[in-house]
Design brief:
The complex is a heterodimer of chains A (about 300) and B (about 450).
Chain A lengths: L1 H40 L2 E3 L5 E3 L3 H8 L1 H32 L6 H13 L2 H11 L6 H8 L13 H28 L4 H9 L4 H29 L3 H7 L10 H10 L4 H24 L2 H4 L1
Antiparallel strand pairs in A: 1-2
Helix pairs in contact in A: 1-12, 2-12, 3-7, 3-9, 4-7, 5-7, 5-10, 7-9, 7-10, 8-9, 9-12, 11-12
Chain B lengths: L1 H28 L23 E7 L7 H15 L3 E7 L5 H10 L6 E5 L3 H7 L11 H4 L4 H5 L2 E2 L2 E2 L2 E5 L3 E5 H7 L7 H11 L12 E3 L7 H12 L7 E2 L5 E2 L5 H15 L12 H9 L3 E6 L2 H9 L7 E4 L14 E5 L6 H11 L2 H11 L2 E2 L2 H4 L10 H6 L12 H16 L5 H18 L2
Classes of the chains: A mainly alpha (about 300), B alpha+beta (about 450).
Chain lengths: ~300, ~450
Amino acid sequence: MKSSVGSIARRNQFSGLWFVFPSAVLMLALITYPLMFGGYISLFDTNLINRWDFVGLKYYAQALTDASFRRDIGTTFLYTFLVVAGNFIIGMALALLLNRNIRGRWLFRSILLLPWLIPDVVIALLWKWLFNPMYGLVNHYLTVFGFISQPLDVLGSPDTAMAGIVIASIWKGFPFVMVLLLAGLQSIPKELYEAAEIDGGNALQRFRHVTLPGIMPVLIVALILDTVWFFKHYTVVWLMTSGGPINATNVISISIYQTAFADFQFGRAAAMAVIVFVICYVIGFVYRRLTPAYEN
Amino acid sequence: MMNIMRVKSMKVVLTVVLAVTLLLSACGGQANDSGNTLGSSGNSPQGSDNERVKLTILSTAQTQNPESGVEKEFAQAFMDIHPHVEIEFISVPTNDAYAKIITMATSKQLPDIFVNTAEFYTQAYEMGITADLRELFDESFVNGFHPLALEQTEIDGQMVFMPNFTIPMGLLYRADWFEEEGIAPPETWDEFMDAARRLTKDTNGDGIIDRWGFGMVGTKNSSGGSRYVPMMRTFGVKELYQDENGNWETEFDSPESIAFLKLFTDLVFEGLVPPGPLQTGYAEAVTMMANEQIAMMITGPHTIGAVLAQNPDLEGKLAGVPIPKQVEHASTLGLLGYSIYKDSPNKEIAAEYLKFTMEKENAIRWTQVTGRLPSRIEPLQDPAINNDMLSGFVKAMDYAYQIPNVPYYAKVYDYVGEAYQSVILGHETVEEAAARAANSIREEIDRNR
């Protein structure tokens, strides 16, 4: 009896493995292998074709002691923080609004989703022209309404270039957060809100004690995805400012791309990319650890 | 007990999977020169006139107007002469070309012919992906190229790429405006500044400047750097040079370099350039020229074709001269051409096609449509090319210098760009910016010793 139970259990175990096998192979091929290969490249001074000179951890040491690398990591953290904060504030506000029973809700949902559907390249060029000091609509309307008398070179000044790319990135990114949070909000039972109202809770208290705990799992997922996505973001920043002026918006993904494809230092670029991977992993780990509600 | 066994076997499975992945990574990473008897994209080796041959060409011209049309004309004409040959273009923007070539080279998917430049050819040669064109072209054909152009295509006696055309850096200007103002094309920087001041004006009387003397490409990239450095060289300064011991050095912090950096940034401070110079790239400057907002820009003759494509009314109103000098004129050839993939099975046909594109009539047609000058001597001397519009750029070729052959040269453009942007933004004085850029260049030299 025992042996037949054991063999059934083993068969079930291997059946499960076979079901998972195709996905596991895809993940290995598309995620694990490139990751490991990138780590491998980082140990060599190589042109990827016919020169593979082993240098060990030299490029890691160079990156970590390079002031410009640390500066770019700092710029990336600032950009990520501002964009994610903006995405969540706007995304949450719109999700709460769209969760109400308002007329034409489906129309608003469709329109507000549009920026997410537009390719990054189009968004970058769109906002670059909007901010253009000679032709841009931003300068035009700021002048018409009397806010400025001289054109503002938003993307040409280190003081405002970061704001420019953050605005464009938030415009692109908020729908993703909005949709996730809206899905979370709609899963919270209405009875909880009714009970909170009966208990005398005001809007803020209901948000804090009912809404937030209810959407916490979704919030964490959205936070992790959004943070990692924008930490390694490249397209919008490159097309709008190329990392300038004077490195004011030089996020780490631009540095890695330049190191690989402009300087042809693939090993060094790979080392930088591995460091970024570790940072992203730590960010995800920290988020999960700092949210006990999610763990529970 | 069952659970412990299950956990152990899962661990074993995962360990095996990880080990296999590591092994695959190591094997996949090493060079594999086993060779490829098939051409790229699965072409069969070139055959006789009865067997179809597919020639694949990676081209940046295909993403540009009007270049793409002319290149397709040449391809069609060649196919008409050789009916068994089919030519297929792979389009890639100039800024992505190197990344594309490297990616294709690592997967041994390079086309028969791929674009190459004076900035990339040493990298391509080091990768071992270029055929020696001297083995495919006869000597008389090779000797027909401009000697300076030929010099910049060779490494260790091998011709790494064929220079299809050259875009010598010069000063493009509105000849009609100069004539109206009674100004001669500037020969020196003093004459240039004077012209820029006189041509910056409010043309419609609304009190707002709507025309500027100079269109500055002030971006911090190769577009900006490749314009700044030749201008700086006219002050007798070298951004990189080899001393008598063969060591690389820079003169970026010399008094002459500082003097030029001051002149360059004064163009912004005096209001002689349109607003937003640090965001003005090549494409934006071309649009300004086409929209009749700027009188001059430092560029190659290819800009003429791009400007006329946007504003055909400017036909006959544009002209070029060498970059103004302080000590001497200077220019870069801006060579762009094609290499043949070392492992291509269609090398002979590829070479024939490249030679066909260089025939005199084709070279003249190419220049007339695109403004890019031929790199061969015979068409350069033809009156169809050596005309009022282009003669200044032809003359600029005589002042061309070889771009220093170092793998970190793109970084030099970055440091140069940081310097002028920093001064324009008021973050540093010219002396501080020049000193910082020079230090950065020296650190880069040390890193690459």
